[in-house]
Amino acid sequence: MTASPASAATAGAGRFAPSPTGDLHVGNLRTAVLAWLFARSSGRGFLLRVEDLDPERSRTEAAQLRDLTAVGLSWDAPPVRQSERTELYLAAIDQLAGAGRVYECFCTRSEIADAPRAPHAPPGAYPGTCRNLTEEERARRRRDRPAALRLRADVEQYTVKDLLHGAFTGPVDDMVLLRNDGVPPYNLAVVIDDAAQGIDQVVRGGDLLTSAPRQAYLASLLGLPAVEYAHVPLVLNGAGRRLAKRDGAITLTALAGIGMDSDDVRNLILASLNLPAGTLENALAAFSPALLPRGSWVFDSPG
Ligand code: GLU
């Protein structure tokens, strides 16, 4: 199915949303292929979003799009760039502020790390230091340091539905909505963009499963529809650790250097999913989420 952006909004869409901070490796490409397979096999559109909120580190968009195309992926509309959408994120913060859900936070990282916290608080959760400052106190603190904005959350956990993990409950805290340098954080942008792009299925690496509850909670506060999640297994190196640059030839460019072209890499990815070699359309005919291997794929680079 080739959906136009308009029909993607009505039929729903899946997406791949890489951060352009380096070349994609076989693990990222496998996740992208899976996102496409999940979307297409459920009659959805498929969209791409460039998560370039960090302009300093966002330099590899062109190479990423080239590599995604090289393994056979295509998307239904021009990619959306987060760096061009700040107004949407600020409007969402205004909406939350209007509902009394936003407060200024002056804490440094080390103040947060050192603050006393309730015994049951999940590790890393914001301890609430600035939640109830008086107006005088805020005025005084603003002179020393620009404020970040935080969400006044009224739950400590939230449950999402994941196609591979079932019901997953994870922590929610007073997450940052705007950093004190004015940059909106990923956890806010992802929620706004998925809704704005008509995305109702989020397939991504399993490392983001624990972020899903806070994102889904934020969506609920903004009155945005809940999405269906599938957090897919990460790819590991031969030592059982998450694939990283030092693991040798793991990008398309590096693999080409040792004689594996993009068709070979796609076939390797498809084999890891128990799917037949060939085009992605061919693999789509054999794909079923229920038959997906549940374990991590170990990629021991030949180079
Ligand atoms: N941009 C994130 C990453 O590359 C993925 C975000 C998402 O899929 O929600 O890790």
UniProtKB/TrEMBL annotation:
Residues annotated for Zn(2+) binding in this entry: 105, 107, 126, 130
NCBIfam families referenced in this protein's UniProt entry, alphabetically: PRK05710.1-3 (NF004314), PRK05710.1-4 (NF004315), queuosine_YadB (TIGR03838)
Record-linked InterPro entries: aa-tRNA-synth_I_CS (IPR001412), Glu-Q_tRNA(Asp)_Synthase (IPR022380), Glu/Gln-tRNA-synth (IPR000924), Glu/Gln-tRNA-synth_Ib_cat-dom (IPR020058), GluQ/Sye (IPR049940), Rossmann-like_a/b/a_fold (IPR014729)
Species of origin: Arthrobacter gengyunqii
Pfam families: tRNA-synt_1c (PF00749)
Keyword RNA-binding: no
Cofactor(s) required for function per UniProt: Zn(2+)
Name the record gives this protein: Glutamyl-Q tRNA(Asp) synthetase
The Glutamyl/glutaminyl-tRNA synthetase class Ib catalytic domain, residue ranges: 15-253
Family listed: Belongs to the class-I aminoacyl-tRNA synthetase family. GluQ subfamily.
PANTHER family: GLUTAMATE--TRNA LIGASE (PTHR43311), GLUTAMYL-Q TRNA(ASP) SYNTHETASE (PTHR43311:SF1)
Ligand binding (L-glutamate): 15-19, 51, 186, 204
Role, per record: Catalyzes the tRNA-independent activation of glutamate in presence of ATP and the subsequent transfer of glutamate onto a tRNA(Asp). Glutamate is transferred on the 2-amino-5-(4,5-dihydroxy-2-cyclopenten-1-yl) moiety of the queuosine in the wobble position of the QUC anticodon.
UniProt binding sites for ATP: 245
